[in-house]
UniProtKB/TrEMBL annotation:
Domain MaoC-like: 24-111
Pfam families xrefs: MaoC_dehydratas
Domain of life: Bacteria
Family affiliation: Belongs to the enoyl-CoA hydratase/isomerase family.
Gene3D superfamilies named in the record: Hotdog Thioesterase (3.10.129.10)
Record protein name field: Dehydratase
Signal peptide (UniProt feature, chain positions): none
Length: 145
């Protein structure tokens, strides 16, 4: 839990923008993720190997970016909401040392079995404004009543 105020279904409408989450990976974080994942593809922790493969240097793990988007969602719905589903695709490379902006916007809502479900567009963009990791999510927010 982030300590933020609970967001309620009655306060959200299409077009609402989620609070941005900014992440800036370090090479150390990539090594730690490689061990935890486990994802030991050398492009994530061996800069020389990555450059020899034609990359600009180390590359942030796709699954780590997925986890960042999961944190964006969790931080927004917590403590009493929940993430029903989310997905993303990896469309661009992100490198350590750059601010990765995790963002989202509400696209619509439905009521099912007394719950308000919100459909979201989520993404990560790099400092050049390029969306490298687009995705979508469905979340449930509690009602004030």
């Amino acid at each position: 839990m982030t300590g933020a105020q609970q967001v309620y279904a009655e306060d959200i409408a299409p077009g609402y923008e989620l609070p941005e989450l900014v992440k800036n990976c370090t090479p150390r974080q990539l090594v730690m993720w490689a061990g935890a994942a486990p994802d030991f593809y050398e492009i994530h922790y061996d800069a020389e190997y990555a450059r020899a493969a034609g990359l600009p240097g180390l590359v942030v793990h796709g699954a780590l970016k997925y986890a960042f988007l999961g944190q964006l969602l969790h931080d927004w719905v917590a403590p009493d909401g929940r993430v029903v589903s989310f997905r993303c695709s990896y469309r661009g490379l992100d490198v350590p040392g750059e601010d990765l902006r995790c963002r989202g916007v509400v696209r619509g809502s439905t009521v099912e079995a007394g719950e308000t479900r919100f459909e979201l567009q989520i993404w990560i963009e790099n400092p050049r404004g390029e969306i490298t990791t687009p995705g979508s999510a469905v979340v449930v927010l509690p009602s004030r009543s």
